[in-house]
Design goal:
Order of helices and strands of chain B: EHHEEHEEHEEHHEHEE
Structural class of chain A: alpha/beta
Distance between the termini of chain A: 45 Å
Strand order of the largest sheet of chain B: 8-1-10-9
Number of helices of chain B: 7
Radius of gyration of chain B: 18 Å
CATH topology of chain B: Alpha-Beta Plaits
Largest sheet of chain A: 7 strands, mixed
Helix content of chain A: 25-40%
Shape of chain B: globular
Largest sheet of chain B: 4 strands, mixed
CATH superfamily of one domain in chain A: Dimethylsulfoxide Reductase, domain 2
CATH class of one domain in chain A: Alpha Beta
Strand content of chain A: 15-25%
CATH architecture of chain B: 2-Layer Sandwich
Oligomer: heterodimer
Structural class of chain B: alpha+beta
């Protein structure tokens, strides 16, 4: 090999029978040869940089857009932004492909030739607004609650505007298309801590991580933060190497980067967590001080009626012995003992349950079981453990309701009565059923705001049919997609880089962050920002409607956000990463550096810097963190007790004694001869939560780590493949009780035997040239199985069979 | 004279591929589709290379390696170019003169890291996707070979700026797009000849290794292995 490398050019050419006389050419080439600068006509391009919000996912990162001649030509990360600190993810880099996408919609369109025909005619904005306003006026007069709005991933201005619009209109039906990605209540936190807040994991400072089917490097809601936290976890502390064990049915990208991967049967993660809890309790390895002083329901307890109730300790010791857990989960008993001991010794240790990876929600009880592990080792609200995001709200709606709105809002929601389903505010999976049966009332009008639930839901086909039966459907979208195909009208969604907006976010360490978006360039003429669309509709519906949206433009909304932040007298505009501990020390002693002398200076700093953050987070604020009736961490949840009283139909399903406790699977599922395999659907890392599927670079690299490009495949374990006599170049039909798909086979040893895995991300039936008709959508295969406490679909309950074709 | 190089810490890398797309947008790579992929004619200058596990109990993909052009100090591609379209400059960057390349593909064959790519098709940017092209980087045509240039245009710009301000080029002013975008801070770039530079220290740390080191290509992109 060495000889080959040392072959000089002359020999090489001689061997080929060619001679060239170019040996004397100089090594240093002129710059004009190396790089051709002829692409710019102007020798001094007018260049500027704009700090703004990344619109590609709801993570809330800051971008610095390079604009030359009023055209965005480059994207970098905002170095001062506390969420991404100058980093980008693969999706953020392609924001300009999204902005200048040839398939992007720019004009309002009306369906012609019948809804669902895929034929459209362009109309002007006024006509579109008139059509919608006429319909809404009728709906509001007759039954305002029969308007439904499905809202996509947005944590800022669009959400605020639609919340206000729907409330004033008199409809309770503002439904989240992606509840887990948005600001939805975390069911485990609500059940055990009594607070309606999201949580974060302080990965960077943890000494030991147990992640349960939580592909937090594949599909985190803030992928830049996850990557940075991982890097700090790995190499941030010299002389100390923390450990990370990942538990998932598939050896995912996350599993590859972990120290150890343990395969597990899909849907049994909570059972394993309780098996680990069993060892912690039996061997006395848990944090006694925390459990005794800060928790409730660990030991047996007496409820208000004076009835003795089962405690967490006795349930875990009775039901989740490691030998039994091994049988249920497929994780060896010895590993369960070892992990439990490691988890206890290496503190702060943190158990991650739910930050992406697999698709669909995890069962509430599984989430609770994993969250209880954090309580057992005292990792709640400590450095290196679980952080609970600070409560923070902007632009609260305090308008009084008129009689129409009050009447409408008193109706039950289409996705189930929210007062009964106490652990989730929104349940999109129940929408198709409600529309189909016209229960509790018929849906007369429906808005799809940057949401494509027909593609992303397990029962997308059913929702698709249901949408056809809604009298009037309007979509606000950037592209054609599987959902807005059923709309009467499509209004184009103005790209994020063209508009004023804001985003409410958090760092993993719990700090509040408000990112401000400002137009990098002037928007195209004739376009309308999403806020203007809502306000124009409100204006047509009457004075009472428009009064809840008092700002005439979205820029004015952002001004008010800045004003509220200034008046809050805390935090500051983004600046270089500073020593948070210094600011914290000062604030704890009643000091504060104001950073800005007046509002105008503050606003300029916020807009120039890209946003505002409050760098203060105090750990162990127990009053803030535990708001359950006992004021402690509830191993046994009174919240759940209330839920069950309100949901009589579930009382038959769950044992009364165990229903308040993390009550995970204790029986192995019966063997199904027709569908002997478990289906595991996972998200393709680069396509997670992305605002547009029509991005060629992302679609090109999404399967790269599996040697795949531009298609959907099914992964089968070598043992399973051998038994089924399936080879690497075959195509098979994957059958579930729900549907069937023909897919190429990939033999993959990084799987639990008898589990098949399919990536989610491709398979759009409508859309742009780089997504329509490419690959298949595994959501079609998923058997709907709803969590009774949240109404969310659990994808891991699907059984499948494979037929060679 | 600086000797530019980079370290990639695999213990920090999450294989998120942010570097891949950041490179594409910076260097005007055209969009491709499933047809080009089927023919194996789509490419990215920075590539994420998966390694499958072996042995009695393989676990599927076990390692992932981001791989740009390694800018070898002893570059096999330069030796075989019949027209001097590829060269190593005095700062160690292996450059490519696109307008001089005759498309013989000797270099793509000679590169042991498969870091060179041939344009089988005329690049297409369906309007208006041609608008955000980076004005600092030329687009390539059908029939020429292209590769990572370590974002050399950024060096030119930074040097011009320093010259205009009558000062030397400062450390950190020149950073390729992949390094700049990495959210995990896994890539460190700088002057390998400066003994106190961060990149130089990392390149001489005990975790450092060079890809296919026994070939003697002496790459200036140095990996830091996972583990302690």
């Amino acid at each position: 090999m060495k000889d080959w490398l040392n072959l000089d050019r002359r020999d090489f050419l001689a061997a080929l029978g060619a001679t060239y006389g170019t040996a004397a050419c100089a090594i240093a080439a002129p710059r004009s040869w190396f790089l051709d600068y002829s692409t710019t006509e102007d020798s001094s391009p007018r260049e500027r940089f704009v700090n703004t919000l990344c619109p590609m996912c709801p993570g809330g990162c800051g971008l610095k857009i390079r604009v030359v001649h009023e055209c965005a030509v480059g994207v970098r990360g905002n170095k001062n932004h506390p969420i991404n600190r100058g980093g980008l993810c693969s999706r953020a880099s392609v924001v300009l492909q999204d902005l200048y996408n040839p398939d992007r919609l720019h004009r309002p369109m009306r369906s012609v030739g019948g809804r669902g025909s895929g034929k459209w005619e362009p109309i002007d904005w006024n006509t579109a607004t008139d059509i919608i306003a006429d319909k809404l006026r009728t709906v509001r007069e007759q039954s305002p609650q029969s308007l439904c709005t499905v809202l996509g991933r947005d944590r800022g201005l669009t959400r605020m505007a639609w919340q206000r619009f729907m409330r004033a209109f008199g409809s309770p039906n503002l439904i989240d298309a992606f509840p887990d990605d948005n600001l939805d209540v975390h069911p485990a936190v609500l059940a055990t801590q009594g607070i309606q807040q999201r949580l974060g994991y302080d990965i960077a400072n943890a000494s030991y991580i147990l992640s349960f089917s939580s592909g937090w490097l594949d599909a985190h809601w803030s992928s830049e933060q996850a990557a940075r936290a991982f890097a700090e976890f790995r190499r941030g502390r010299s002389g100390f190497r923390p450990k990370w064990v990942h538990i998932e049915p598939r050896h995912s990208l996350t599993g590859i980067k972990a120290d150890e991967w343990l395969p597990i049967r899909p849907g049994t993660e909570g059972t394993l967590a309780l098996g680990i809890a069993h060892v912690l309790i039996r061997e006395g390895l848990y944090d006694r001080e925390f459990v005794e002083q800060r928790s409730y329901g660990f030991e047996d307890w007496v409820d208000r009626q004076g009835v003795n109730r089962l405690g967490f300790r006795r349930m875990v010791l009775q039901d989740y012995a490691p030998v039994k857990v091994q049988e249920l989960t497929g994780v060896p008993e010895g590993d369960i003992f070892r992990i439990a001991r490691e988890f206890s010794v290496n503190r702060p240790a943190v158990a991650l349950g739910f930050d992406g990876g697999g698709c669909g929600s995890s069962a509430t009880y599984d989430r609770m079981a994993i969250h209880c592990l954090n309580a057992l080792v005292g990792s709640l609200d400590v450095t290196g453990g679980v952080t609970i995001f600070q409560e923070f709200s902007l632009l609260d709606d305090t308008h009084e309701l008129n009689s129409v709105a009050s009447r409408g809002l008193s109706s039950p929601r289409l996705d189930g009565p929210v007062d009964q389903r106490r652990l989730a505010t929104s349940a999109i999976d129940l929408l198709a059923d409600a529309i189909e049966h016209g229960q509790p009332y018929s849906t007369e009008a429906l808005f799809l705001i940057d949401a494509n639930p027909v593609f992303s839901l397990a029962e997308g086909k059913r929702l698709s049919a249901a949408l056809s039966s809604v009298t009037f459907v309007v979509a606000v979208s950037g592209y054609h997609d599987d959902s807005n195909r059923h709309a009467d009208l499509i209004l184009p969604l103005l790209h994020g880089l063209h508009r004023w907006d804001f985003n409410l976010g958090h760092t993993l360490t719990g700090h509040s962050v408000v990112t401000v978006s400002q137009p990098a360039m002037d928007p195209p003429s004739g376009s309308r920002p999403p806020y203007d669309i809502v306000r124009a509709l409100a204006g047509r519906l009457g004075e009472d409607m428009v009064s809840v949206l008092p700002w005439s433009t979205s820029k004015e909304v952002v001004d008010t956000v800045c004003r509220e932040l200034f008046d809050a007298s805390k935090g500051a505009a983004f600046g270089p990463a500073n020593e948070d501990s210094w600011a914290q020390l000062l604030e704890s002693r009643g000091w504060r550096a104001p950073f800005a002398n007046n509002y105008e200076e503050f606003k300029r700093d916020v807009l120039d810097g890209g946003g505002w953050t409050d760098p203060i987070y105090f750990h162990r604020e127990w009053d803030r963190v535990f708001r359950s009736p006992s004021g402690k961490f509830a191993f046994s949840s009174v919240y759940l007790d209330h839920s069950f009283k309100a949901l009589p139909e579930t009382n038959e399903v769950f044992d009364r004694d165990r229903r308040c406790l993390p009550n995970c699977r204790t029986q192995r599922r019966e063997r199904d001869k027709t569908y002997p395999l478990d289906l595991y659907v996972y998200s393709l890392p680069n396509l997670v939560a992305v605002s547009s599927p029509n991005l060629p670079w992302l679609n090109d690299i999404a399967g790269a780590y599996m040697f795949e490009k531009w298609r959907t495949w099914v992964e089968i374990h070598p043992q399973t493949a051998e038994r089924l006599e399936v080879g690497a170049h075959d195509s098979v039909e994957v059958c579930t009780p729900q549907s069937r798909l023909v897919l190429p086979v990939k033999i993959y040893s990084g799987l639990m035997p008898d589990v098949i895995a399919i990536p989610f991300g491709f398979g759009h039936k409508s859309g742009g040239r780089w997504c329509k008709g490419i690959g298949e959508n595994p959501a079609e295969l998923v058997t709907p199985h709803l969590d009774p406490l949240t109404g969310k679909s659990l994808w891991t309950a699907t059984r499948a069979a494979i037929r060679k074709i | 004279m600086a000797k530019w190089g980079m370290t990639i810490d695999l213990d920090r890398c999450t294989a998120c591929q942010a570097c891949v797309t950041a490179c594409q947008v910076e260097n005007n790579l055209p969009p491709t589709g499933p047809e080009e992929a089927r023919q194996g004619r789509n490419f990215t200058w920075m590539e994420m290379i998966p390694f499958e596990g072996e042995g009695e109990r393989p676990k599927g993909i076990e390692r992932l390696l981001p791989r740009p052009c390694l800018h070898c100090d002893n570059p096999p591609c330069v030796k075989v170019c019949p027209v001097e379209a590829t060269f190593k400059n005095e700062e160690g960057i292996v450059g490519q003169i696109f307008s001089r390349c005759i498309g013989c593909r000797y270099c793509t064959t000679a590169c042991p890291y498969t870091a060179r790519y041939f344009n089988w098709n005329e690049p297409q940017w369906p309007s208006p996707m041609n608008r955000p092209l980076n004005p600092d980087v030329s687009v390539r045509t059908k029939g020429v070979v292209e590769k990572c240039t370590l974002c050399h245009h950024r060096l030119q710009n930074a040097r011009d700026q320093a010259r205009a301000e009558n000062r030397p080029l400062h450390d950190g002013e020149y950073t390729p797009a992949c390094v700049e975008s990495c959210p995990a801070g896994a890539m460190v770039f700088g002057d390998l000849s400066a003994p106190n530079s961060e990149v130089s220290k990392l390149a001489h740390s005990r975790r450092a290794y060079k890809l296919l080191e026994d070939l003697g290509t002496e790459p200036k992109v140095i990996y830091l292995r996972e583990g302690e």
